[in-house]
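Entry for the shared binder. Reason: the reviewer on the internal report wants the predicted structure included alongside the sequence.
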Amino acid sequence: MISTILILIIAFLTLIALMVIHEFGHFIIAKKFGVRVDEFGIGYPPRLFGKKIGETIYSINWIPLGAFVRIYGEEGGVDDYRSFANLKIWKRVLIIIGGVAAFWIAAIIIFSVVFAMGADLPVGDNDVQGLVNPQIKVIAVSSSSPASEAGLKIGDTLLQIESMRYESAQSKPETVKLNKVKDFQDFTKAYAGEQIDITVQRNGETFDVLLSPRVNPPAGVGAVGIGLERMATLIQKSAWYMAPIHGAIYTWQTTVNALKGLYVVLADLVIGKGVPEGASFAGPLGITIFLANAASYGIGFFLYFIGIICVFIAIFNLFPIPALDGGKLIFLLIEKIKGKPVSIKVEQGITMTCFIILIALSLFITIEFDIPRFSDFLKSTLQK
């Protein structure tokens, strides 16, 4: 329970770190162009404490939901050589893109680390092509279950399962080499109430455990009381000098695939097909839970998942919606075409309206999707 809560806290801090990286991208480019940066804050006001270094206040704030940077003149109406508004348009574009680019740079670094160490990633039972070393991993163990009493632990690899039933003196017990989760589920269902032998690998050592699957297990727990995932080595370990190249290529491929997926979703919406079946949404709480669950699969998958999130958030921030970086770029495009900036009052009004809509949408997603996820997460935690 304590370890799970710790993982949840680490996942939440990881999400905040991603927001800090994003704002740092804006910050560093603004500094490069000589723009005055009034504050770089982690969390949102009210301020917990802050320290002024040079002309910038570096602060820690009470609401831990992200980060922000206050750039002098960003909201316009300031005629000063050190203001954002006084910069040439291309420089303002680079400052805005800096935050998005920071996500892609972070993704390249993270994927480079993943390629340097290699990673086992979850795959489905029906995936058969290109799999290297598919294994059945234990990702959860329920308390007071046959699995916990037998000593199974999270991270164990299940190699083989064997019955202890002999139909006759000449017969041999049924043995199944485990390659799919369904193999284990079907076997324990067939031999519920009987003793079975499971061959387990842990930290390079192989041993056997004996247990009896329950005939009538508690709802949602299973006959043995373990959560299983089929894993395969989808990212091969690379030489350290090749890892950054593979990391950059993989970031590009992930971005392209994400854009293709987004195009399909938007195309379906336009022609009236609606949201794809099984599609779901996640806000900050949901992403935190996904990160916490990803940690159950090992450090390789945890880092891999963070890299994926970096790419998706980068793309999301480029949406042409005021209050996002993409929306700010639209206003700069209009300024370039018209030869003068959009009215400050109009821009702020549109931005605030979109910001309120985004907050309302975020609350809806939190209530509709994230809170049920969090409830399920707590239930599974209490069962371990």
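Summary line for the report: The longest strand covers residues 37-53.
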